[in-house]
Give the backbone structure.
Amino acid sequence: MRNFVYFMHKINQAEIQQYADALADEGWFVIQDFVDEQFSKQLLEIVSETRFNQNFRRAGIGAGADYQLNNKVRGDFIHWISPHPSEPVLQEWINVMTILRSGLNRELFLGLQDIEMHMAIYPSGTFYQRHLDQFNERSNRIISVVLYLNQHWEPGMGGELVIYRDAAEPVTVDPHAGTLVCFLSDKIEHEVMQTHVERFSITGWMLRKPVGLGFL
């Protein structure tokens, strides 16, 4: 059995207020070292085991009738995480995101009621062109969240997240392990630059309405 070192980020009210203000004013925020190295390594181990068991699939674009696979737009592979995963470290992460969701909902009155999460792997040479996370056919994704898991990322490896802003220069976020990015799903256009090494993350959304995995 894996020897887990459990992590719980003690998000206090001052932090919640700071994050909420950033979302209200800018539409995004970044927290470096949101999780410690041991916790991100545990998550990365689970991603690696899941891939070894061939449980990843190519990610598509769009939803419903608009769904399609297009590696000229998006090249990552994903695995959806159960709302009640058997792995304790995944459950711990969902617990942390639930606390954050509740706090942001309390401050911003967004009607957030659920979360959905998946593991993501970008093989070397892949990317995701500029886009919004909101689907045309449904609008339940309100806040996007990404936790990076690359332990030894260095400049030149690629895979950066570019956040586009209406009246300012884009912001580039390096995918260091432990960095958390949150942004408004229907407002913030973003892009994953081509990666030159495998890029790993846990990506998810805070939702206005509960959804089941069969809907994804």
Q: What stands out?
A: The longest strand covers residues 114-122.
